[in-house]
Amino acid sequence: MKAAPEREVDRSVSQTVKAQLALRDQILSGSLRPGERISELQAVETTGASRTPVRMALVRLEEEGLLEAIPSGGFMVKAFSERDISDSIELRGTLEGLAARFAAERGVSARELEPLKECLAAIDELLRQIPISIEAFSSYVALNARFHALLTELSRSPPLIRQIDRASALPFASPSGFVMAQSALPEAQQILIIGQEHHRVVIDAIENREGARAEAVMREHARLAVRNLRLALRNRTHLDLLPALALIKTATDRGQCHALHRDLDSGDAGVDP
Amino acid sequence: MKAAPEREVDRSVSQTVKAQLALRDQILSGSLRPGERISELQAVETTGASRTPVRMALVRLEEEGLLEAIPSGGFMVKAFSERDISDSIELRGTLEGLAARFAAERGVSARELEPLKECLAAIDELLRQIPISIEAFSSYVALNARFHALLTELSRSPPLIRQIDRASALPFASPSGFVMAQSALPEAQQILIIGQEHHRVVIDAIENREGARAEAVMREHARLAVRNLRLALRNRTHLDLLPALALIKTATDRGQCHALHRDLDSGDAGVDP
DNA sequence: TCTTGATGCTATGTATACATTCTTTAAAAG
DNA sequence: CTTTTAAAGAATGTATACATAGCATCAAGA
Question: How many other CB atoms are there within 10 angstroms of residue A111's CB atom?
Answer without folding.
Answer: 9
